[in-house]
Amino acid sequence: MDDLEKYIEKRKKRSKTFAHSFELGYRDFKIGAILKLAREDSGLTQDDVARKLHTKKTAISRIENHAEDIKLSTLERFTHAIGKELKLQVV
């Protein structure tokens, strides 16, 4: 475990609010990162996806970098635009 991970773990132990906020932020980050990797795997640029969705590149960037409160319909449209299928799992 590196210094950053140790620091985060200490903060989580000291503050339930921090722990909760950190986990939510990390989850949102992962969603955006997964979408970006899937887009890149499809060989598409943000401009390509924006054209397919009839929107601007900045909207695609926002989806990939700030995925908090993203609508399910937006996720479905994004994944279809990159030739992928969206699958959700409840665990």
TrEMBL record:
Pfam family, one: HTH_31
Top-level taxon of origin: Bacteria
Annotated organism of origin: Candidatus Raymondbacteria bacterium RIFOXYD12_FULL_49_13
CDD domains: HTH_XRE (cd00093)
Alphabetized SUPFAM superfamilies for the sequence: lambda repressor-like DNA-binding domains
InterPro entries: Cro/C1-type_HTH, Lambda_DNA-bd_dom_sf
Start and end residues of each HTH cro/C1-type domain: 35-89
Protein name: Transcriptional regulator
PROSITE patterns named among the record's database cross-references: HTH_CROC1 (PS50943)
Example of a GO MF term: DNA binding
